[in-house]
Amino acid sequence: MINMERRALLKTGGGIGLFALFSAVGLLKPGLAMADWNKSAFSAKNLDEALTAMGVNKPEVNDVFIQLTVPEIAENGAIVPVKVVSTYPNVERISILVEKNPNVLAANFIFPQGTEPMLTTRVKMGQTCSVIALVKADGKYYRSSKEVKVTAGGCGG
Amino acid sequence: MGNPMKIRAAVKEGVTEVKILMQHEMETGLRKDADGTLVPAWFITEVKAEHQGRTVMEAQFGQSISKNPYLLFRFKGGAEGEKIKISWVDTKGDTREDEVAIVV
């Protein structure tokens, strides 16, 4: 099926064939120009590996300027609500990591000027472990973490 | 083309709150189906939110985001009737784009 698409694109793409091909088989489509998806960080198997891949060195722990809200007990590990609010000035990015998941980094959120440094989302958790909020503000990294007890993992099958 | 998103954007006291519910399996690549065959990874990698053409939030997802991803965020500005556009792209290169008007 992919080959069919390639052929169609090469036929219609003409001179820009190569570029069109790469855009078609890659992750990004033209018109969706987004920040780079960091493959090594998203494939990291443990917390240290993820932080290294993200270029983060020993983030300062701060539970005052980062409010991380997670349930104490998650009955369903497939849907664990996570809320992060940061009161640092100039928050550029908030990342959510799940310490013992097979893929530790769950998401990065990038905040342009004017967007409030807060978010709510839902993550999967395979087992009881810490959820970590990593905040980048003024070029520096800060973290806060909380343990969630998972009674039924969300990665089974 | 992916399934439609549910989006609600409401402005209150100069701040617009955007709630998004995407429809996506978010397969981790680690799950086995009933026959014991590994289901290949398939998940949304990037989400972008635009208000009148200006990017107000970007997100990058990994496998640990739940099926049918939910997202809430807030930005300063926005007025009734103005447009919020959300788009995503997944690991298969599939995309989805939906637009709503801000309500009060």
Key features of this structure:
heterodimer; A: about 160 residues; alpha+beta; Immunoglobulin-like; 2 domains; six-stranded mixed beta sheet; three-stranded antiparallel beta sheet; 4 helices; B: about 100 residues; mainly beta; four-stranded antiparallel beta sheet; 7 strands; elongated
TL;DR of this structure?
The complex is a heterodimer of chains A (157) and B (104). With 157 residues, chain A is an alpha+beta fold.
Structure, described:
The complex is a heterodimer of chains A (157) and B (104). Chain A has 157 residues and is of the alpha+beta class. Chain A folds into two domains: 1-34, no CATH class; 39-150, Sandwich (Immunoglobulin-like). Chain A is 20% helix and 35% strand. Chain A contains four helices and nine strands, in the order ααααβββββββββ. Chain A has helices at residues 2-13, 17-25, 39-42, 47-53; strands at residues 60-61, 66-69, 73-74, 80-86, 91-98, 105-110, 118-123, 129-137, 140-150. In chain A, strands 1, 3, 5, 6, 8 and 9 form a six-stranded mixed beta sheet that branches. Chain A has a three-stranded antiparallel beta sheet with strand order 2-4-7, with no helix packed on it. In chain A, β5 and β6 (105-110) form a beta hairpin. In chain A, α1 packs antiparallel against α2 (17-25). The longest helix of chain A has 12 residues, at 2-13. Chain A is globular and about 40 Å long. The two termini of chain A are 28 Å apart. Chain B has 104 residues and is an all-beta fold. Chain B has one domain (6-101): Immunoglobulin-like (Sandwich). Chain B is built from no helices and seven strands. A four-stranded antiparallel beta sheet of chain B has the order 4-3-6-7, with no helix packed on it. In chain B, strands 1-2-5 form a three-stranded antiparallel beta sheet, with no helix packed on it. In chain B, a hairpin with a 2-residue loop joins β3 and β4 (54-61). Chain B is elongated, with a radius of gyration of 15 Å. The relative contact order of chain B is 0.33. Classes of the chains: A alpha+beta (157), B mainly beta (104). The interface between A and B is large, with 43 and 39 residues. β7 (118-123) of chain A pairs antiparallel with β5 of chain B.
